[in-house]
Amino acid sequence: MTASLTRRRIRIINQICWTLALCIVAIPFVFPFLWMVSSGFKSAAEIFGSPSLVPREWQWQNFIDVFKHQPFARQYLNSLYIAVTVTALTLLVSSLAGYALARMRFAGAALVALFLVSALMVPEEVTIIPNFFMMRWAGLVDTHWPLILLPTFGPQGIMATFLMRQYFLALPKELEDAGKMDGLSRLGVWWSIALPMSRPALAAVAIITFLNSWNLFLEPLIFVSSLDKFTLPLALSNFTDPYGMPLWHLQLAATSLAVIPILVVYIIAQRQIIESFALSGVKG
Amino acid sequence: MTSLSLNNVKKHFGRTEVIRGVDLSVDDGEFVVFVGPSGCGKSTLLRMISGLEDISSGVLKIGNRVVNETPPARRGVAMVFQSYALYPHLNVRDNMGFGLKVRKVPIDERARRVMEAARTLKLEPLLDRFPRELSGGQRQRVAIGRAIVGDPEVFLFDEPLSNLDAELRVHMRSEIASLHKRLGSTMIYVTHDQIEAMTLADKIVVLRDGLVEQVGTPRELYERPGNLFVAQFIGSPKMNILPVGSVAKALPVRPDSAAHVGMRPEDLKLTDPGSGLVSGKVLLSEYTGASSLLHVELPDGEIFLVAYDGPTIDADTTLGLTIAPDRLHFFDSAGQRAS
Ligand SMILES: Nc1ncnc2c1ncn2[C@@H]1O[C@H](COP(=O)(O)OP(=O)(O)OP(=O)(O)O)[C@@H](O)[C@H]1O
Ligand SMILES: [Mg+2]
Q1: Structure letter (DSSP) for residue A194
Q2: What distance in Å separates the CA atoms of residue A74 and residue A94, rounded to the nearest whole number?
Q3: CB A178 to CB B136 under 8 A?
Q4: What is the whole-number distance in angstroms between the Cα of residue A251 and the centre of ligand 2?
Q5: B148 lines ligand 1 (CB under 6 A)
Q6: Cα–Cα nearest to B208, from B188, B231, B224
Q7: How confident is the model at residue B163 (pLDDT cuts 50, 70, 90)?
Q8: Confidence category of residue B337, pLDDT binned at 50, 70, 90
Q9: Which pLDDT value is given to residue A284?
Q10: Is the CB of B35 under 6 A from ligand 1?
Q11: pLDDT digits (tens, 9 = 90+) for A197-244
Q12: Structure pTM?
């Protein structure tokens, strides 16, 4: 009786200690975020004037000025639809290509894999120039196409393909055989069996791809020049006064807004990952 | 009508030939069991019949159709896998109905057939569960249910019971036997388990290295094994084999070509030392409850296995062994049965 009581007390104390420790470790990660959000509510003068995390005077006006300074809503929407498109396309392409690499024996499969890997070895800064010429030749400069095509079929897409391939390789083959016995075509096995069982991998690819597209800076900088075609990273660096000095309060308010989709995607994808782990939980 | 025949069927993976020309015919409603040592090609042969593995050469007929090029789902066969291969993201009902759904069977017809199969296998209370929520035996039954639902003409089983514990295995064995009786379908069954093979089979096919060694009823294989390999493979414990020369004096009549003589452990009787066919010293006596298994060392160092039912015999006892003449098996120098 008393033994179990003290054991429970020990467990509670243990838990408190861990929670405290984790909170302390989390401070360096969380603080900049909090600082950003709170600064978004401050006036330009207060940001550097007062170290308090709570604004002296809540400047709601910042969030209105953000949209007046440049076509921020348009730019936000640009980023959003581009990231969603890239994510959807990458999921489709990488899971199809990854499945082919994992399960199909076709002539030149090894060569294809080698070719893909070699494409990973060249840094983006090198390929951006030929890519630019290619896009200009195709008449796609100052459109959103490069921002969709390059991440989907470039190194990011290849990484996603290998990730999916690795995951497919680990799926039990007999399940796919069962699907074939049930009358599924190869594409049917991919869609009805391989994909539903690969939800953790798909979620991981979705997070990585969405984040990457959302944060893409170099490509928009090079391919897009019209203000209303800007994506968020470009737009954020564009909150400046006529002399080119950053307007910190607007920039931080805008950045706070820019973080929201990331949080949403993360929460959705995380639930997918946890659920599918519970689902596929293999038991002898 | 759903007989099945293989005609000089071969399979190679790259350069290695795994099935090296198999001829076999299976009658309608027959229960055929494939046995053979690990790696001899049992699964490969079964998968070739199912259509999961293509046939390198030869002819496979199901019914009167040549189905070499027919996709799995159109062959009228269903397969039960060793790992059960239940779809983890679907519940029992959807697992069983999946094939019908793919074949676009109307939804109420599908529900009816799933219910019917569930009733047959006593799966009704489990229909809404997911595979991870089932025990091994229940999963096995769902896997069989999934096969039944499609109303196939031929059932293929690849070691379906090997993941179950001993007691459940015996139980499921009898369920499969009664299922076969009820459905009357043709069944082909791969197993490592001698008892499963002997009890279930109308016909056993012994495979070795991609070739058929012998085909016959369990009784034929046990009582008249066609060659040394089958003689030693069928029956547990293994048949004892001696060169004819070493016991020639004591042997009664024997065929002229006989080079080896085989004696099943359960056919041997104990006698006084020196009076039987052979004599030897007991090395080890393994008590199994129903009987004991004696390991007897012959003078030339051979170990003889003897199934023995009686009072305990200590190690180092010397004894003689005898056998009824009609229980002797003779093989020629090529290992073929000599009679
Ligand atoms: N996809 C494959 N590629 C190459 N060789 C294969 C392939 N599948 C099977 N084999 C080979 O074919 C032979 C027969 O394999 P199979 O699985 O049919 O044996 P088995 O009789 O079922 O054995 P077990 O009793 O262990 O299940 C083995 O030597 C195996 O290595
Ligand atoms: Mg096998």
Answers
A1: I
A2: 29
A3: no
A4: 65
A5: no
A6: B231
A7: confident
A8: very high
A9: 32
A10: no
A11: 998 899 889 988 999 999 999 999 999 999 999 999 999 988 888 888
A12: 0.84
Q: Give the pLDDT confidence score for residue B1 in this predicted structure.
A: 57
Q: Using the structure block, give the residue that is written with the tokens 């990331």.
A: A262
Mutate to test the pocket of ligand 1, among B9, B12, B18 (most ligand atoms within 8 A of CB): B18
Distances (CA, A) of B227 to B47, B202, B258, B262, B323: 27, 20, 12, 10, 20
| Domain A68-280, second-level architecture | Orthogonal Bundle (1.10)
Sheet holding B278-287, edge to edge: B269-271, B318-322, B278-287, B292-297, B303-308
Please count the helices (runs of H) and the strands (runs of E) in chain A: 15, 0
pLDDT digit string (tens) for A139-163? Answer: 999 999 999 999 999 899 999 999 9
Cα–Cα distance, A224 to A235 (Å, whole number): 11
**Contact: A183, B102; criterion CB under 8 Å:** yes
Burial B42-79 (b: 16+ CB within 10 A, else e): bbbbbbbbbbbbebeebebebbeeebeeeebbebbbbb
Domains belonging to chain B, first-starting first, are: 4-228 (3.40.50.300), 263-331 (2.40.50.140)
Phi-psi region of A23 (alpha: psi -120 to 50; beta: other; left: phi over 0): alpha
For ligand 1, atom 28, name the residue with the nearest CA: B39
Which tokens go with A71? 């076509």
Contact check, Cβ <8 Å, B89/A175? no
Ordered mean pLDDT values, 10 residues apiece, chain A (284 residues): 79 94 92 88 82 82 88 93 96 96 87 88 87 93 94 92 93 94 94 92 90 92 92 90 86 91 86 67 39
Q: Per this entry, what is the length of chain B?
A: 339
Look up tokens 């000089």; give the residue: B8
Best of B19, B42, B191 for a ligand 1 pocket test (most atoms within 8 Å of beta carbon): B42
Tokens of A129: 């120039």
So what's the pLDDT on residue B7?
95
